[in-house]
Amino acid sequence: MAAKRKKNKKMGRGGRIALAAFAALFIAIMALCAVASVNASVVRVRRADLELPDLPASFDGKTILYASDVDLCGLNTARKSGKLFAKLQSLQPDMLILGGDYASPSLLDILNRPEGAAARAERQIGARADFFQYIGAFDAPLGKFGVAAPEDADQSALAQQMNGAGMRPLFNDRIAVSIGDDTLWIVGVSAETANLNSAGSAFARDDCVIVAAYSPSVLPVLVTSEARDGGRWADLALTGHTHGGQIRLFGRNVLQLNRQEQQYLSGWTVENGLPILTTVGIGCEGVNLRVGTAPEVWLITLRKT
Prior knowledge:
Blueprint: H1 13-41, E1 44-52, E2 63-67, H2 78-88, E3 95-98, H3 107-112, H4 117-135, E4 144-146, H5 155-164, E5 168-169, E6 173-179, E7 182-189, H6 196-200, E8 209-213, H7 219-222, E9 236-239, E10 248-249, E11 252-253, H8 259-263, E12 267-271, E13 274-278, E14 296-304
Parallel strand pairs: 1-14, 2-3, 3-4, 4-5, 7-8, 8-9, 9-13
Antiparallel strand pairs: 2-14, 6-7, 10-11, 12-13
């Protein structure tokens, strides 16, 4: 009996359509990741002229370079961020304010390394130390200041790293910046538990006070607390931590944000007469990808009304 020939089964029309759809989806995802990676690596310089009624005359025209959420991880190395600030030096800011979240674990770091949180924190502290060596070369005639986020590991070590870079750590603290007889105050808020109601009692309402807070979470208290003689005590609030959602698809954020962070997601707002800036930051959390947001720093020129 003659052996039966085996027939080659050809893929049906439905299978070909499914394969083509899968290939198209794969290509689209890879293209999106490529665009998101490029988008995450290009830092924009945003500029704003801000009129402050309480600004002393000597500070009219002075500039602040405000940057937050460096988030050293993955491709965003200390060397890369150091080169960024070397380029930003050409802006010649009078003051530098850094808003916390200096290093974070990458997603691959968490998945591939079994040693645990302590070892990851140690690597982050090392990367952070390298970053602040670059910041040490950054020149800001009226001072360099930094706050901390709760996620910043070993804040005593962070304060030492800042001091070594010629920065003033402002961890729930304040400092007076003076030009002649004129004074401007900078207040750093590094924790939600900071008692901002009592902080306001240190100032009169006609003092000029710039508040740098690690997160918009503190804003509800900040905008309602009063100076010792009544009225609003803060003149400008600078916040970060939201990353603008980092990856925004169909109006939704990939990052989990609380209600205040959703409300003050990015950009400028005014509450109770207080101008508030929420920057989307420089780095990324977990993976160096951004969709619907772009990394940024802000150069703010202070103006006397």
